Amino acid sequence: MEPEVIIASSPTDAGVSCWDLRNGVEHLRYKSCASPSHGLASVAGRFLASSQVRDAKLSSSGSIFYWSWNKPQVEVRSFPAEPIKPLVSNSHGTYIAGGGVSGDIYFWEVATGKLLKKWHAHYRAVTCLVFNDDQSLLISGAEDGCIRVWSLYLIFDDATSREARHLYEYSFHEHSLRVTDVKSGYGGCNAIIVSSSEDRTCKVWSLSRGKLLRNIVFPSIIDAISLDPGENVFYAGSRDGKIYIAGLNSPVTSNGNYGPHIIGSLSEHSKAVTCLASSADGFLLVSGSEDGMIRVWDTRTRNIVRVFRHAKGPVNNVLVIRQPHHINPRTSVGSLSAPSRRHGLTLPPPLEKFANSPDENVYIKAIIGPQTTSDQLLDSSYTSIQKMEAQIKELQQQGSSAAAEVDVERLKNEQLRSVQMIQQWKKMYENLHQFCVTELLNGSQESTSGPNS
Questions:
Q1: Number of domains making up the chain
Q2: Within this chain, do residues 293 and 403 fall inside the same structural domain, yes or no?
Q3: Quick check: 24 pLDDT over 70?
Q4: Which of 29, 208, 306, 412 fits as disulfide partner to 296, beta carbons 3.0 to 4.6 Å?
């Protein structure tokens, strides 16, 4: 099992904490973070990003911060057109999506910081965002109680989107109050999603059919949910300090103390459970609470195996991610700043406040190269289409000799691939020929030697 780390943040200016999930070793603390719920994201393990809402009364007050793994200070600051609450990155770190207090969703390209799309998604503030596992759908929940499923193919297909009656694939209105969390299972467009709300219910939906599969009523308001990787159960963190365990595939069962489909609970937090996350294997569950504590639970024994304290104030975000290559155990700031300068680690540029004109926004994608190793530059994995286009133009301007060299090299590579393929086919033919000869010889021997011979 690859090493994993816990990342935690708070709505107060208590920074970001980081610990090793298995041995509890603390890594560097990252400063100056006051994140809203669902406002903390790891961008493909390359760097940390968090939305910031420091004054809820100011409609124009809001920012998005970036931290590299080996520096405690904020390195990149972005100032979007409005405060962003939920923030999410796709698994490759190509895009970042943010939900605005106006109900708009913003979609940025990470490598360039360009605002690719903005659309009005909800009538009230967006509260949570999540990509499905194949990254083709973006699912949003909002203060209006609505959950909507957005196809990114439709969002970025201007011709089709202009003809469509609406941009969303599904719009679920069964929650009567604010949506607090949404999680997606495995299976692409055939997956389930689970949502929670201040109406004290969690609902299970089918993405393939666009229908409600199950409605579960809880004793208290649920603010956070985590799906078990096997999707047999999900965990629901409530405001009464308990983590309820609800069955997904089991028949209707009832714990005597709770209700249908609730098969147990974990109880140790003194205040509301605000956030949940699971390890990759599902054997460990991490919970954060308003009591400022982070607890790690063994899901098989339902016992606590580790407890952390996050600086001051409540915890409202926890993530469990694969340990990044560039992360270091907690040491002094001075000892970290020198190596980071030596390796020249840099982050992508700030996110743009407004979208460019249509002519300037032709390129809406980035190429993501192989994952970087610990001794490679952090920004070497980001190559935008614009940069590739500039390199091609530069090559063309060097004259016909350079172009001829490129063609010769290309032909050599093609010839090498052709020779390798011929050798593979020759080997396959020899193996098949040998097999046929062996079978014929064996068959002849069996026919000449009957049962009486």
A1: 2
A2: no
A3: yes
A4: 306
